[in-house]
Design goal:
Pfam family, one (chain C): SBP_bac_1
Largest sheet of chain C: 6 strands, mixed
Radius of gyration of chain C: 25 Å
Strand content of chain C: 5-15%
Order of helices and strands of chain A: HHHHHHHHHHHHHH
Number of helices of chain C: 18
Organism (chain C): Herbiconiux ginsengi
Radius of gyration of chain A: 24 Å
CATH topology of chain A: MetI-like fold
Low-confidence stretches of chain A: 273-279
CATH superfamily of chain A: MetI-like
Oligomer: heterotrimer
Keywords (chain C): Signal, Transport
Mean pLDDT of chain A: 84
Shape of chain A: flat
CATH class of chain A: Mainly Alpha
Protein name (chain C): Carbohydrate ABC transporter substrate-binding protein, CUT1 family
Number of strands of chain A: 0
Number of domains of chain A: 1
Chains: A mainly alpha, B mainly alpha, C alpha/beta
Shape of chain C: globular
Structural class of chain C: alpha/beta
Number of domains of chain C: 2
Family (chain C): Belongs to the bacterial solute-binding protein 1 family.
Strand content of chain A: under 5%
Mean pLDDT of chain C: 88
Structural class of chain A: mainly alpha
């Protein structure tokens, strides 16, 4: 096969890739240029045009209106503890349900699976009533617990799926050295699941980070606002929106996430590479 | 040997935290809400026992059936696109781009990161028709077609919602399925290549069967997301114009929280949960059958 | 042996689950213990979209209400409008309402709070404090009409609605300010012929369109037209009501709202007016903020407003302005301590003047000198409000939440011909009958 024909055969693939990059990179660009426009510029000119005047003040206004110095901290305080609990509990339960043997594990797995189907709207009222009476509505604790619980079904289900692929003998063998199944989980199960844990953690991260439903109810007080709630501050009472500063605030938060994601992505690639050499 | 895997202490220790949190925060509130399906009223005015009234109302409420029809159309279309296009992406990453796919993967994944507010504003502007044409209408006008008021009518707004939600989630499904494809041992693919299998045959007989578990997992994940679609519709069209793009979740949300009729809202939520349950059990069963065969 | 262990562990699990459930249930039953005690701060829960009340309160807290603020510091929290009513009802059901909060964006939901007796009766409270005369009578009458007859909300905003117009376009083309519906149609036809979008209206929001229906009804049938619907004495499907919807649908059919009105959002509609592409917009006086703002390319001096014209032979009068109090705020009865009461007194006394200094028109009585620096058009509105004796409401004002929602999301369908006037009115009436 000559290099030319090989090159030609790659053209459809290259075109697909170019198209993919175009439709996903464009919004980034769109958001950035619109974050620098005045409101009248945004409304009067096509939204894909460059700004008439580069209004960098939008970033200052955006930061203040979205109350980012508070909301970023709150989003972090909520997301990471929830994520850690979620991954730890979920992986442990996935291991218990798929590797260990006991009666009723199929039922419990199904019980967790059922949780994927529960609409969040259905549990809001009871949870609010309960946390109000316990007296924790003035803190971020309810949100951490709720995100942990609502993320569990998917995590348990996915972890169980991943553990299913690993021969049980590996865990049994470890107990010959006298280790308990609990120790086998921490010393063998968790490390083997590194890829899966990262994948699940990333999925859950964005679910939690972008959640609005629970955040609205439980983080409505200004000192508890998460980023998503803060972004609503750009709407006016009669439906108008302060576009430039809103896009600026989104650019700031998304930029931060992008950096985090790029760092994590390196980790994922490493993890995946490590997984690929498995024998 | 079995007794080792039946380590009681390990089971309790590893399972209890998850089960406890899950039971307290999801199952109990669900049961609580289910109880409310037999009541009428709101937290403020108090609840009154209503027997099966809410269920009778559910079956005679045409808005529920319209919302259900929207939900079904949306869920089937979007789930199909998500999984099929996601699979296509994963194949592209794994077999065409191979090691150099990092940048493309990152970029295509990017829309997942964007907050719903941002995505919906973007799509409102791309499909805008008033006061000035957006990008799509501009293209249509340039090729000689008229401009369309995309979000001004139910049928065209539906198209925009589907495009938007497929666009924003496809990168995620690409990576999810890609991680499944990575688990297929290279030796198997190499050896079947040596046997003369290539292109579509390699895909049909080796790649597809071996990636079925992750495909099923994707289906379950996707369908449960799409049946529960809420924030993207809420932010893009608010369910309108009229109630032409109102899914069940939005109708439930409005009934419970804006019309403060929590009992009836819970009844709608119950219908929604039942649908999810049936669909998931169906996929779950067929996946179990396929894996064992 | 393995069976025995697993059975035991399952029992343990079920036990845990049951304990958890009953703990939650117990907690749930002990509800209502949260309220009653005197608040430790003057918390104001507002809708996050409201950006006008907070700056005024902040000035007061540093100035006239400094003493009150030192005793009970002002603390502001916010909730998006869409979720505010449900959040407030949840808090009310738990006895956990903050001392002051916004509520009743949908008047029917606000009236529910008044019915549940969780709000302060301002008639009595303000009289006790000796500041009852600090609330403008017109605003009080609007509040009483909206919220089931009581004076349970405070008018932190007071808006009148009418048609804002571009005086320059009118005079350049020699159009007269219309005083009757037919004259309005005449001007609209001329505007359309001259290449303008005669009326700028947001179909995406819907309410800018339904308000035209209700104001037409008030002019044609008299100020009690919508009260009759609320009381069940008339139906929206009655021919005289459908006629109003048909009149507005006809504006759409003639293209007076421009192409693609259905998806035009509120900013787009303001922008058409503020850039001179549209000579008229029906809107409330909150639009003054935009008219006096930097994005007005026509100039505030070239803008004015006229009342919605009369319908010939109609029972209503042209000087009955549609009025509203925006999304008002109120006080919680349970949290109404002495310190909160002194805050209320201070707000009632000083809010109107400070707000007017910031260019906001409220239902609190203000020192007239505070408006001296305001643009002419704002002063005109302020005077009109002060002089008006009678007001009317708007289309959805007395509807239950569901009918209100359906009405505004269906309005775009009405003016684009996707829904006939009969269908529109019967859909809304149906939602009123089955809330």
């Amino acid at each position: 096969m000559s290099t030319i024909t090989r090159g030609l055969r790659r053209i459809p693939a290259l075109l697909t890739i170019a198209f993919l990059i175009l439709i996903t990179a464009y919004p980034l660009f769109w958001m950035f240029i619109n974050s620098l426009k005045s409101n009248s510029d945004f409304l009067n000119n096509p939204s894909y045009a460059l700004p008439e005047v580069w209004t960098w003040e939008n970033y200052v206004t955006g930061w203040e209106t979205a109350n980012l110095s508070t909301t970023i901290v709150n989003s972090i305080i909520v997301t990471f503890p929830a994520l850690i609990l979620l991954v730890l509990f979920g992986t442990a339960a996935g291991y218990a349900l798929e590797v260990l043997v006991f009666k009723g594990r199929g039922t419990i797995l199904l019980l967790f699976l059922a949780g994927i189907m529960i609409p969040g709207q259905m549990i809001v009222l009871p949870l609010f009533t309960a946390s109000f009476n316990i007296g924790i509505t003035g803190s971020l604790l309810p949100l951490i617990l709720i995100y942990t619980a609502t993320g569990l079904p998917l995590t348990v289900f996915m972890m169980a799926t991943y553990f299913r692929a690993i021969p049980r003998e590996i865990f049994e063998a470890s107990t010959i050295d006298g280790a308990s199944m609990t120790r086998a989980f921490f010393s063998i199960g968790m490390p083997m699941m590194r890829n899966a844990i990262l994948t699940v953690a990333i999925v859950q991260f964005f679910q939690i980070w972008n959640d609005l439903l629970f955040a609205l109810i439980f983080a409505g007080q200004r000192k508890l606002n998460t980023i998503q709630v803060g972004l609503l501050n750009f709407s006016g009472e009669y439906g108008s929106i302060n576009y430039g500063p809103l896009f600026a605030a989104i650019c700031i938060t998304v930029g931060g996430i992008l950096v985090l994601y790029l760092v994590l992505n390196q980790q994922i690639i490493k993890g995946l590479a490590a997984g690929a050499v498995k024998g | 040997m079995k007794s080792v895997l039946g380590d009681r202490k390990a089971i309790v220790l590893l399972l209890t935290p998850a089960l406890l949190v899950y039971t307290l925060i999801m199952l109990v509130p669900v049961l609580w809400s289910l109880g409310l399906t037999f009541f009428e009223g709101s937290p403020l005015g108090g609840f009154e026992f209503a027997g099966f009234d809410n269920f009778i109302r559910l079956f005679s409420d045409s808005a529920v059936w319209e919302a259900l029809w929207f939900t079904i159309r949306y869920a089937i279309l979007v789930t199909l696109f998500q999984v099929v296009l996601g699979y296509g992406l994963a194949l592209l990453y794994n077999f065409v781009l191979r090691k150099s796919s990092v940048l493309v993967r990152t970029l295509v994944f990017f829309p997942v990161v964007l907050p719903t507010v941002a995505v919906s504003l973007l799509y409102q502007k791309i499909f805008q028709s008033a006061p000035t044409d957006g990008l799509v209408n501009e293209l249509l006008v340039n090729v000689g077609l008229g401009s369309v008021d995309w979000l001004g009518a139910g049928t065209t707004a539906f198209v925009v919602i589907v495009i938007m939600d497929v666009w924003r989630s496809i990168g995620f499904y690409g990576i999810l399925i890609f991680s499944g494809l990575l688990d297929i041992p290279d030796e198997i693919i190499e050896s079947s290549r040596l046997d003369g299998a290539s292109g579509f045959r390699l895909f049909r007989h080796i790649v597809l069967p071996m990636s079925l578990p992750i495909v099923f997992a994707s289906f379950i994940f996707s369908i449960n997301g799409t049946i529960k679609v809420f924030d993207s519709v809420f932010a893009l069209t608010g369910g309108g114009p009229g109630d032409s793009t109102t899914p069940l979740t939005l109708y439930m949300y409005r009934t419970a929280f804006q019309y403060s009729d929590y009992g009836y809202g819970s009844t709608i939520a119950l219908l929604l949960t039942m649908i999810c349950l049936v669909v998931t059990l169906f996929i779950f069963r067929s996946s179990r059958r396929d894996i064992t065969s | 042996m393995s069976t025995a262990t697993s059975r035991r562990s399952r029992k343990a699990l079920i036990g845990v689950a049951l304990v958890g459930a009953s703990a939650l249930a117990l907690v749930g039953c002990s509800g209502g213990s949260g309220g009653g005690s005197a608040p430790s701060s003057f918390e104001f829960l507002k809708n996050s979209e409201n950006t006008t009340t907070e700056p005024v309160l902040n000035v007061l807290a540093d100035g006239e209400c400094k003493a009150e603020n030192e005793k009970l510091p002002l603390e502001i929290s916010s909730q998006p409008q869409a979720d505010l009513d449900s959040q407030v009802q949840l808090l009310a059901s738990q006895g956990g309402l903050p001392p002051m909060f916004s509520a009743g964006g949908n008047p029917a939901e606000g009236a529910k709070l008044a019915d549940a007796d969780v709000l302060v009766d301002f008639d009595k409270a303000l009289t006790d404090l000796g500041v009852r005369d600090k609330i403008a009578p017109g605003a009080v009458s609007t509040i009483e009409k909206l919220y089931g007859g009581g004076f349970d909300f405070l008018p932190f905003q007071y808006n009148i609605e009418g048609i804002w117009y571009n005086t320059k376009i009118f005079s350049d083309n020699g159009w007269e300010v219309p005083t009757t519906w037919d004259e309005l149609l005449d001007v609209a036809a001329k505007a359309k012929a001259a290449g303008y979008t005669p009326f700028s209206a947001s179909g995406e929001q819907g309410w800018p369109i339904t308000r035209l229906i209700s104001t037409y009804l008030f002019r044609e049938l008299g100020p009690d037209a919508m009260q009759k619907i609320a009381d069940g004495d008339a139906k929206l499907t009655d021919p005289e009501y459908v006629k109003a919807a048909a009149a507005i649908a006809d504006l759409g059919a003639k293209g007076y709202f421009g192409d693609n009105v259905a998806s035009l959002d509120i900013d787009g509609s303001y922008n058409l007016f503020l850039t001179g592409k549209s000579p008229m917009i029906y809107m409330g006086s909150w639009i003054l903020g935009n008219i006096n703002g930097a994005d007005n390319q026509v100039g505030a001096e070239n803008m004015s407003f006229f009342p919605f014209p009369a319908v010939e032979g109609g029972a209503g009068s042209i000087d009955q302005y549609p009025a509203n109090v925006g999304l008002p705020a109120t006080f919680s009865k349970a949290a109404y301590s002495d310190d909160v009461a002194s805050w209320l007194g201070c707000i009632a006394t000083n809010y109107g003047t400070e707000a007017l200094k910031q260019g906001q028109i409220t239902g609190f009585v203000a020192d007239p000198s505070a408006s001296a620096d305001l643009p002419e058009i704002s002063q005109k509105v302020q005077e009109t409000i002060a002089d008006s004796t009678d007001s009317v409401l708007w289309f959805e004002a007395l509807f239950p939440a569901k009918a209100s929602q359906i009405s505004s999301t269906s309005a775009a369908l009405l003016v684009t011909g996707q829904m006939s006037p009969e269908e529109f009115m019967s859909t809304v009436q149906d939602a009123i009958d089955n809330p």
